Every structure is written in structure tokens, then in C-alpha cells.
Amino acid sequence: MIVGVDVGGTKTHIRSSSGVDVVLPSTGWSALDGASWLLERLPAGVTALAVGAHGAEDRAQCAALRDALAAALDVPVTVVNDGELLLPAAGLRSGVAVVVGTGSIALHDDGSGGVHRAGGWGWILGDDGSASALVRDAARAVLTADDQGQPPSQLADVLTQSFGVATILDLAYALGSDTETWGRHCPAVMSAFAAGCPLAESVVTGGASSLGTLVATFSARGLAFDDVVLGGGLVTAVPAYWALIQSAVSAAVPSARVRLLTAPPVAGALSLAHSLARSAR
């Protein structure tokens, strides 16, 4: 049984060559010690395994997780960052993959094993354009407007409702006390954006622009690419946001072919697992 796994920040998708197709919450996942977590969830009879792992930020972390899984299963295993699943899921060997979900990261793959990253530093420090970062930036915009004596905006109203608090001060406390759940409140930001709230429009447009800037960093570093593939729960769930991102990336890198991944990223993991099985044979 050839198995591909996409471990994301919110959910984990497991798919096999024999028809297993399961989506589970990623609760309790940590790339630093993820082997036992995965082994509890994998189907029996695995013969080759490819994992795209959220939080596996460098080759050493990927190798450590790979070795632990391979030792436990005694089968060929490969582990990559979950963002590296987008290109094979799109049928590509090289290009730039951008994940826009709970967090965000961009990865440049030259098709020969050379992978470079940009972003993906966590939403407190970065991950601009992601669900969590949009909530962070929306809260900052609401707090700044309050400092300036402006009346509460629709964005302020939906955020306080989403967090279950009554005041702007309470909103600041709520954000500071639980940074892990910010992304869950992104639908509130998007609802204000869809309703035409100027403050929400500024936040969402700024998030899209930051992703265009992120992709352009690869060009500035002299890394060539033709294709840019975007995926992740947020960009696929909100067409209006995807349109803004597509425009921003195209403006930042006019020569690039920008596309939205329509297949689930786990398809890329299964493709890598099939390649691994062929190599092993």
C-alpha cells in the first residue's frame, strides 16, 4: 500500500493507492516529534510513504522524521515540508509553491533537489497573507482606529463577536492570551471584507500584496522560475481573495504563470510516494 500524507496546520489528509482517503484534525501534531503521532494514524500495510509535514522547516527536521518513520515501518519513506507537495500535485517538477492557509510560506524548487524558502516564520513574526496573519493585522487595524478616536467599524464589530468579547480592550486581551487559534477567526475578517468595510478591505488587500512581494523575493535572489502554484485552505475557500493574490503575484513577477491548485496537496504526497516506490524497486 503506497501512502501519501499531508500534515497541515489545521488538518491532516491521508490517501493511499488502495483507496484510503481520510481527513483528520492535526491536533497534537509537532514536526519535532511527529513519528509516533503519524504511526497511530497510518493505515496498516504501508509499503512506501511520503509525508508533507507542517513545521518541518529544514532538511535536518525532515530527515529526522523520515528516519524515525522508516525505522518503525521498515519501508521507504520521504519527508518534505507540506508546501513542497503543491508542485507535484499540480504535475510540475519545478517552480514556486505558495501555501496560504492557517500560515503561509513560499518555496522555490529548481527541479533538481534544490529548495529555497521565503516566509513561513509563524504568524506572530510573519506568515503575512495567511488566515492567522489577517486576523492579527485586522486586530491591529481595529486597535489603531480606536487609538485615533474613530467609531467602531464593521471589522471591529465582527472581530469582537467572533472572539466572544464586548470591547476593543477585551479583544486585545483575548488575542494575547491565545495566539494558537487566531486563524479560526479569519471568516469574520472575510465577512467584513465581503460587506465592503473599508478597514477590512485594506487588511485583506495588504495580505494579498504581501504574498506578491514574497514570491518576488526569489527573482531578487536570482532564482529562475516560470510557474507559481498557490494552495491552502484560505486561498481555495475565498475566491475574492484568490483574485487579489493572483493579481498581486502577476504584478510582482509579470513573467510568471500563476495558477490555483485544484487538486488536494495530498495528491502531491501520493505522487512522491509512487516515485519512491519505483526507485526502491
UniProtKB/TrEMBL annotation:
Source organism, top-level taxon: Bacteria
InterPro entries: ATPase_BadF, ATPase_NBD, Euk-type_GlcNAc_Kinase
Domain ATPase BadF/BadG/BcrA/BcrD type per the UniProt entry, residue ranges: 71-269
Residues making up the signal peptide according to the UniProt record: none
UniProt xrefs under PANTHER family: N-ACETYL-D-GLUCOSAMINE KINASE (PTHR43190)
Protein name (record): BadF/BadG/BcrA/BcrD ATPase family protein
Organism of derivation: Hamadaea flava
